[in-house]
Design brief:
alpha/beta; four-stranded antiparallel β-sheet; 37% helix; 25% strand
Length: 224
C-alpha cells in the first residue's frame, strides 16, 4: 500500500513560488498498475520522485506499508529504497566505466554496502541480470558499455537495473520514451505481468495507448 497525504512540493522561481504537486492525497493498493498522465509541468516526475524518496516534499507525507519514509534517516531511507523500490528515471545515469551487465547488477552491491557488508561477485547476480536483459531483448549488449548503445537501448538497461532486486514497487518515468512500438508493447506487458504477481507499478507516460493497459489512471493536470 502506498498512501500520500496532502502531499505538496513547491519551488522558488524567478516568477515566484510554484507548486507542481499540491495537497495531493491518494491511496494505491498493493498490486495496482497505476498510470499517471498530465501536461508538461503538471508534476508527474516530481510526484514519483517523492514516492521514491528522492525528493522531500514541502509538506505532507508518503507512507509505504505504513512506514512514513521521510521520517527515516538518510541511511535507512537509502536502504529502504534499495530493498523496496525500483526507480526508472528519464535521466540515463550510468557508471560509464562499467559494462551494461555490471550497471544492471549495481543495486545488489549497493544494498550490501549500505548494510556494511562485504560485496562479492556472485554467480546469482550475474544470472539474474542476464535474465532481465534477455527479457528486454538486450542480452547481447551485456558486455558492451552504455555509451555504445542507443537511447532506447539504454532505457531498457535502466528498466533491467530497476528490477534487479525484485522490488515490490516499480516507479517508471516515461520508460517507453525513445523505444519503438514493439519494445513499448513488451515493456508494458512486462509491467502488466509484474502487477499481476502483486507488484505495484506506477507508470508515467504521455502515450494514452500505453496507459490503457493500466488498472487506473490519474491525470495530474486535473488532480492538482
Amino acid at each position: 500500500m502506498i498512501k500520500l497525504t496532502e502531499l505538496t512540493k513547491s519551488f522558488k522561481t524567478s516568477h515566484g513560488i510554484i507548486s507542481p504537486v499540491e495537497n495531493l492525497s491518494i491511496e494505491i493498493p498493493e498490486g495496482t498498475f497505476l498510470g499517471i498522465q498530465g501536461k508538461s509541468g503538471a508534476g508527474k516526475s516530481t510526484l514519483i520522485s517523492m514516492i521514491a524518496g528522492l525528493q522531500r516534499p514541502t509538506s505532507g507525507k508518503v507512507f509505504i506499508n505504513e512506514t512514513d519514509i521521510f521520517s527515516l534517516s538518510d541511511e535507512d531511507l537509502s536502504l529502504f529504497r534499495n530493498q523496496n523500490i525500483g526507480f526508472i528515471s528519464q535521466e540515463q545515469s550510468f557508471l560509464e566505466n562499467l559494462t551494461v551487465l555490471d550497471n544492471v547488477r549495481l543495486p545488489a552491491f549497493l544494498g550490501k554496502q549500505i548494510k556494511n557488508q562485504q560485496s562479492d561477485i556472485s554467480k546469482e547476480s550475474v544470472e539474474n541480470a542476464l535474465k532481465l536483459l534477455e527479457s528486454l531483448g538486450i542480452k547481447h549488449f551485456a558486455d558492451s558499455y552504455p555509451k555504445n548503445l542507443s537511447g532506447g537501448e539504454n532505457h531498457r538497461v535502466l528498466i533491467a537495473r530497476a528490477l534487479m532486486n525484485e522490488p515490490e514497487i516499480i516507479l517508471a518515468d516515461e520508460p517507453t520514451e525513445s523505444v519503438d512500438d514493439v519494445q513499448t508493447e513488451n515493456i508494458i506487458e512486462l509491467f502488466r505481468k509484474l502487477s499481476d504477481k502483486g507488484k505495484t507499478v506506477i507508470f508515467v507516460s504521455h502515450d494514452k495507448n500505453s496507459l490503457k493497459k493500466c488498472d487506473r489512471i490519474i491525470d495530474l493536470t486535473s488532480a492538482v
